[in-house]
Amino acid sequence: MGEGVLIGLPDIFFERDGELWCEGVSLSRIGREVGTPCYVYSETGIRRRYDALRSAFTGVPCRIFYSAKANANLAILRLLRSLGAGVDVVSQGELFRARCAGFQGRDIVFGGVGKGAEELGAGLEAEILLFNVESEGELRRLSALGAERGARAPVAIRVNPGMAVDTHAYTQTAHYETKFGVAWEDVEDLYRLAFRLGSVDPLGIDFHLGSQILSPEPYRRALPRLVELAGRVARTGASLRYLDIGGGFGVPHDGGPELDLSAVAEAAGAAAKALDVEILLEPGRWLVAPAGVLLAGVLYAKRLGGRLYYVTDTGSNDLLRPSYYGAYHPIEAVRRGPATTAADIVGPVCETGDFLGRDRPMPALQEGDFLAVGFAGGYGFAMSSNYNARRRAAEVLVSADGYRVVRRRESLADLVALEEPCEAGP
Ligand code: LLP
Question: How far is Cα 164 from Cα 162, in angstroms, rounded to an integer?
Fold first, then answer.
């Protein structure tokens, strides 16, 4: 394995014969055969992550509901289903994708702060395991929809624990200056209301602390408080079966210390025991981010004001995280060589904030070379757009047998397919 190559799981992405590989396939082969930009995911990598998460929670009564928002490609959903995961969805679209991938109702939890009537109805039709409810209005609407159908909706109330958690402001969800969940002091009243409404069954309690959390400490702080609150909720008559602790398990992108999952598991195990409930986990990023990279093609090298820019064929339309959160993603040349210079890696999008990385040590690159942007298996393609009428990237899944394209690159015709007929055929 090459020195200093960190773009994801090290035994999945490594250096061989002077270039970068994903499992048994060189990234330059994928770049040549599929074209760029292209997301490349490793099946073995995702399997390993799933197994590692399961084993960190050994002894804790729990189920994993993969958070589809991180990467909802059907091949990824099917893979996680085959491993035994359920799925956490936040829209009718994600519910549809989950159903397309073969998930049954009992394998689905439905979260999200703004589920409309049609979406809630779709969840009822699918007979899902649990709705995570975030407001009194939603609880009332769900009960009314249940009554119309002669069905009872299984619910958990999502609690906003009113806690500051050390992560990017845009991925904090657990304090009152964010829109998420129900205020701590209103939670018991909502369970009482659930009983009065009649067509909802309060079966669980739920929270989510934020995303990219790299310390077990917020979980350790929140869980005993939740146990105390759930104890009070139980006195309203609710017999809780589930404690959904959300997702948020972080993945360092820079070789920094990993989240101590066993410490999270210990706190969750203690809570499960105290309440005699099953723990539901909703991890997204942890399972998929380090098992994927974004493959970019170098278009041009140019110097401007003393800076070297490598302009690539991918940017914030494909991977928004650097622009949106200032997120660091390692970027490595696929054809290896000693770093001789520092360069800004930028995209083709007409925005100053369209960059993948700044001041990155790089070997001298030629037009046509490939770059791999690391830790891009989660919140990469899922957050991509057609801005500047760019066609969204292809997605590739590498497995022990080789690789296959699991989503083709969009065509020009795809760009106009939903609009009035086009005069000039693309
Ligand atoms: N459960 C709930 C209720 C959530 O809101 C989220 C993420 C998850 C589970 C999964 O979180 P994870 O385990 O992936 O951290 N776009 C951002 C992340 C936003 C996450 C929103 N909610 C990013 O690229 O970092």
Answer: 7
